[in-house]
Amino acid sequence: MRRGVVFLIGLLLPSAALGQAPPAVHASYATYAAGLEIAHVEAGVSMGPRDYSMDLAYRTTGMAGFLFHGHQYYEVQGVWYGMRPMPNHFVGQGTWHGRERLTDIAYEHGQPRVRRLLPTDDDPREPVPETLQSNSIDILSALMELIRSVGSTGRCDATVRTYDGRRAVEIEAHTVGQEELAPSRRSDFSGSALHCSFSGHMVAGFKIDGNRAREAKPLHGSAWLAPVVAGGPPIPVRMSFETRWFGDATMELTGVRKSRDAALARGSG
């Protein structure tokens, strides 16, 4: 569940346009599987001509909250470098089944440096080679790249590699085209949105005693992006994706606001 919600994405970034930074956008989402709500998500996006930040917080709800109780918070700050986002600092922290989880990664010249990783005894894994860590980005930076690409080019075709301190994942995204989303009781959005398909598969960091074939199997999904506030970037208004825990899941936009402030305050959601 932890990686399924944030596994939304992939990417190609055009050069930054100079000018006044657009307002930060705060969005709320409900996530469903098998007709039931399984998670509540809050996301904050702040994107300037030279830098960016993003927060994402979620918690399980309903029966999923009973079976997989937990909450998670992610945040990243970075800068734009030509055609790419370059994260400076990524942090993920949360609690699952009463156990604390923490990922703290700093980036130096494109190389991720893991500063803290908890729990230290979590499912022993094969080490990720430095060649696959080098020039990788975090999953939030990958999503920011997608958002900026859609806003500037109207397309979302690219490939990136993410690394979370334990696993390296290759993600591909492709443009499907503009589509009309019908009104839904689950969502605050209806109208035209760009449909992007994506898939991702683990390339390193497999569990030593795990099912390698199962872990390497690609997960697929789709994201629909559209601008939802005046002057703001296009953001996901709907997403559907496969998970290894609940099967197919769908995430629907349920609320949005804009602010000149930084993204989400820690602990929201």
Task: From the structure above, extract its key features.
269 residues, mainly beta, 13-stranded antiparallel sheet, 5 helices, 13% helix, globular, disordered N terminus, disordered C terminus
Order of helices and strands: HEEEHEEEEHHEEEHEEE
Describe the main β-sheet briefly: 13 strands, antiparallel
Number of helices: 5
Helix- and strand-based class?
mainly beta
For the largest beta sheet, what order do the strands appear in spatially? 7-6-5-4-3-2-1-13-12-11-10-9-8
Arithmetic mean of pLDDT: 85
**Cα distance, first to last residue?**
16 Å
The helix content, as a percent range, equals 10-25%
The structural domain count equals: 1
Q: Which term fits the overall shape?
A: globular
Rounded to an integer in angstroms, the radius of gyration calculated over CA atoms is 17 Å
| Poorly predicted residue ranges | 1-20, 261-269
* Percent range for β-strand residues: over 45%
Number of strands: 13
